[in-house]
UniProtKB/TrEMBL annotation:
InterPro entries: Isoprenoid_synthase_dom_sf, Polyprenyl_synt, Polyprenyl_synt_CS
Statement: the UniProt record of this protein carries the keyword Protease: no
Gene3D superfamilies: Farnesyl Diphosphate Synthase (1.10.600.10)
Single GO BP term: isoprenoid biosynthetic process
Keywords: Magnesium, Metal-binding, Transferase
Keyword Mitochondrion: no
SUPFAM superfamilies, per the entry: Terpenoid synthases
Catalytic activities: 5 isopentenyl diphosphate + (2E,6E)-farnesyl diphosphate = all-trans-octaprenyl diphosphate + 5 diphosphate
Protein name, as recorded: Octaprenyl diphosphate synthase
Gene Ontology MF terms: all-trans-octaprenyl-diphosphate synthase activity; metal ion binding
This enzyme's EC code(s): 2.5.1.90
Function: Supplies octaprenyl diphosphate, the precursor for the side chain of the isoprenoid quinones ubiquinone and menaquinone.
Species lineage: Bacteria, Pseudomonadati, Pseudomonadota, Betaproteobacteria, Burkholderiales
Length: 309
């Protein structure tokens, strides 16, 4: 990961000072670096030691960071990772344009791999992520959204880059189709579980630990799995309250919404859905060669369910 951070620092350079300033601001905020870590773990499991693993790990982090910059503008977010978002600090125009810079720099870097399969996987992933973002925008404040519609969005918006990260490592390692597919399945299941747990924490987390405001999803009109399950299980009055807050985006009733989500067992049901995805990831990881890196992949999937931030 230190090597990946070195690549990131080198490739953030720009002759336009504001570009580097904004990009460094959001990347230096830290974050989990899960996607590059996933690529490195899978590469290790498949015994690939080439330097391209550092380059492509930086690429997926750049793509992820670009989506964060754009997301925070769309969502009008003010807090991420415990400090002001880039759009709050530098304004919306700078955030959008620096997000564009990171996307284009990522495409410059992926060319370095000189592999059309790498280009194919990353270009497809980037396009699907953008489609997922648009679909999520269309779904805002829609109280009729069901679990299938919710999963469709997060598999595009979040899980696709996890899937691509794992698949890229298999491509670099020259793996056969079966192993590449197992890696992709691991990444997609892990990314889905990650997002489902993230949606639980929006109603059951600690704002200080998470570094973002609780109830942001509700304010932004995002209908996530805890709300969907609560809508299915609640009585008439509870469903009406949830419908109203979803459609208005008001957080005035957040304590009542959280109470309904708890009373209906929606949080536990959502955690069970995440556990099912984590198990799919574990099953896929067991198809890989047995070594310390593969063991790390198993541990990552298992520990994901325990995250509080």
């Amino acid at each position: 990961m230190r090597e990946v951070d070195n690549v990131i620092a080198q490739r953030l350079h720009s002759s336009v000072p504001l570009v580097g300033q904004v990009a460094r601001y959001i990347i230096s905020a830290g974050g989990k670096r899960l996607r590059p870590a996933l690529l490195l773990l899978v590469a290790g499991a498949l015994e690939y030691r080439g330097a391209q693993r550092f380059n492509l790990a930086a690429v997926v982090e750049f793509i992820h960071t670009a989506t964060l910059l754009h997301d925070d503008v769309v969502d009008e977010s003010t807090l991420r990772r415990g400090r002001a978002t880039a759009n709050e600090s530098f304004g919306n125009p700078a955030s959008v344009l620096v997000g564009d810079f990171l996307y284009s720099r990522a495409f410059q870097m992926m060319v370095d791999a000189e592999d059309m399969r790498v280009m194919q996987v990353l270009s497809e992933a980037t396009n699907i992520i953008a489609e997922g973002e648009v679909q999520q925008l269309m779904n805002t404040h829609d109280a009729s959204l069901d679990e299938a519609g919710y999963l469709s969005v997060i598999r595009s918006k979040t899980a696709k880059l996890f899937e691509a990260s794992a698949r890229l490592a298999a491509i670099l390692a020259g793996s056969n189709a079966e192993i590449e597919q197992a890696c992709a399945e691991y990444g997609q299941a892990l990314g889905t579980a990650f997002q489902v747990i993230d949606d639980v924490l929006d109603y059951d987390g600690d704002a200080q630990e998470m570094g973002k405001n609780l109830g942001d999803d509700l304010r932004e009109g995002k209908v996530t799995l805890p709300l969907i399950i609560a809508m299915q299980r609640g009585d008439t009055a509870q469903r009406q309250l949830l419908r109203t807050v979803i459609e208005t985006g008001s957080t005035d009733e957040l304590p009542a919404v959280v109470a309904i989500i708890r009373q209906t067992g929606a949080l536990e049901a959502t955690r069970q859905a995440a556990a099912a995805q984590a198990q799919l990831a574990i099953d896929a990881a067991r198809k890989l060669p047995s070594n310390s890196y593969a063991e790390g992949l198993l541990q990552l999937a298992a520990q994901l369910l325990e995250r509080r931030t």
